[in-house]
Amino acid sequence: MKIGELSRATGVSVRLLRYYEEQELLSSHRTPGGHRTYAADAPQVVHRIRVLLDAGLPTRVIREVLPCVHGDGVRVDACMADHLRDQLRGIDQRIAELRDTRSSLAAILATTERLTERPATERAGLTPTA
Question: Keyword annotations for this protein (predicted)?
């Protein structure tokens, strides 16, 4: 299967397929004319890559996990479970950090909005004279 055929079969751009090769997620062979050809199971491999990317895994982790992925990409050998748990913990930590960041930003915005609702003289620390 040529790269254009693989692109059409998977809905993944030729450029992205080349990137997967650069990241050692997908392999091809070269014809004597220099064209890339892929094995018959390449569409399934691309699907698995997409499933793992959608799960938030970086390509360096996918490279390690991919040989242990089976079927439609949602079943991985048990030996990789700890690795995936580590990735999940990292995602949970990033979510917690984002929640903290969001709370800080919301507090700044709330203070800003409270201050802008007050008359300009109060914001400047002046009291109106009668």
Answer: DNA-binding, Repressor, Transcription, Transcription regulation
Stretch (H or E) spanning 69: strand 69-70
In this prediction, residue 117 carries a pLDDT of: 78
Distance from C-alpha of 90 to C-alpha of 73, rounded to nearest angstrom: 21
- Please tell me the pTM assigned to this model: 0.72
Q: What is the bridge-based pairing of β-strands 29-30 and 69-70?
A: unpaired
Give pLDDT tens digits for 38-58: 999 999 999 999 999 999 899
| 114, 117, 119, 122 alpha-carbon torsion, rounded to 10° | 0
Query: How would CATH label the architecture of 1-76?
Result: Orthogonal Bundle (1.10)
